[in-house]
Amino acid sequence: MKFEELNIAQSLKDGIDSFNYQELTPIQEKTLPIILKNKDLLACSQTGSGKTAAFLIPIMDKILYSERDGIKALVIAPTREICIQIEEQIAGLGYFAGISSLAVYGGSNQENFTKQRNALENKTDIIVATPGRFLAHLKLGYVNLNKLLSLVLDEADEMLDMGFYADIMSIISYLPKKRQNLLFSATMPNSIKKLADEILVNPEFIDLNFSLPAEEIEQKVFMVFEKDKAKLLNTVLNNFKNNKILIFAGTKLSVSRISSYLRTCKIKHSSINSNFTQEERIETVQNFKSGNFNILVTTNLLSRGIDIEDVNLIINYDIPEKAEDYVHRIGRTARAGKLGMAISFINENEISNFNRIEKLLKREIAKSKLPEGFSSAPEYKVIVQPRKRRWKTNRKTIKLDKRQKSK
């Protein structure tokens, strides 16, 4: 289906043309008709599938046919980077429609807080916000949401993982009961189903099977001792010069160590983590997008929600503990059907983490031989977790704690 076939305002179609969007992605084709019918929706789709436009286009069309007398849509997202990206997409799609928006997120800048307050008081059409900062504005009493038409929870599973459940429910307590609710998630754990039961009213459900990475991603794995990871990284980077590369580390400390090593190797790059100020984070991502440097070291901060074009290579320097994070990370490449590669380094203590990843992917990924100059590597094996011993009775199962075992 093509965007020009949609029954939406022409000014929105002009905005869509400016993005050079032509055919709807699968998530857009399935969800747009539901949202346009004003139904509640729970949608599961992997990162990079086009779900932002899937909810923005019908919401903006609804706003154009309503009185512009207050905040009409509220989009809650887990991080400031995702909020900024969504607001940028609103600005582009709504350029010819005159729809106003603002990203509301935390920070120590008082001037920014005042700008946010003014937008919230002056009937901005769409607010995109992180939960904590928006709740802070709500509690100060000047935000009027009586005219709200739509609530969107984007990357809902990530927000729950970050501990935002209480904030989300507090925000919902301020909203009018009659509204459309849209919940978008990359995974479908029980916590999301519980949240959907509490928020959504007679919802439609779309599940586009997040688990499997795009077929265009070539996945490569090296077994390597932790002490040799930096040397392997240098070798890989020398083989992929002039590519746009994202390097994912497990912690902020690991980001710092990788960055220090790359500086000693005189490899041009930049790094980003949650300790950076908002201004530093925005500037770094923009410089990476524009090609001022082609290697960026980061944590899971950039593993989902952020749209960066033409990333050719993902390097998992540290293997994530959550298998789903691996899928989000490598989903940063091979966007829009393009080819891409993901290379993962597995040390002696990360084997069980990669076991979980292969279980999620439902296949084994071949382990590549280390380049010349590496004498040995850990052995990859499937680690079977021991089951907890239990005594069974007719009525219940009793777990044995350490005191019981010693008797």
What would your notes on this structure say?
By secondary structure, the chain is of the alpha/beta class. It folds into two domains: about 5-205, Rossmann fold (3-Layer(aba) Sandwich), CATH 3.40.50; about 215-370, P-loop containing nucleotide triphosphate hydrolases (Rossmann fold, 3-Layer(aba) Sandwich), CATH 3.40.50. About 40% of the residues lie in helices and about 15% in strands. The chain is built from 15 helices and 16 strands. It has helices at about 10-20, 25-35, 50-65, 80-95, 110-120, 130-140, 155-160, 165-170, 190-200, 230-240, 250-265, 280-290, 325-330, 350-360, 400-405; strands at about 40-45, 75, 100-105, 125-130, 150-155, 180-185, 205, 215-225, 245-250, 270, 295-300, 315, 340-345, 365-370, 390, 395-400. The strands form three sheets. A seven-stranded parallel β-sheet has the order 3-4-2-5-6-1-7, with helices on both faces. Strands 10-11-9-12-13-8-14 form a seven-stranded parallel β-sheet, sandwiched between helices. A two-stranded antiparallel ribbon has the order 15-16. Helix 12 links the parallel strand 10 and strand 11 (about 295-300). Helix 2 runs parallel beside helix 3 (about 50-65), helix 6 (about 130-140) packs across helix 8 (about 165-170) and helix 13 (about 325-330) crosses helix 14. The longest helix is centred in the N-terminal third of the chain and has 14 residues, at about 50-65. The protein is globular. The termini are far apart. About 40% of the residues are buried. The model is unreliable at about 390-405 (pLDDT under 50).
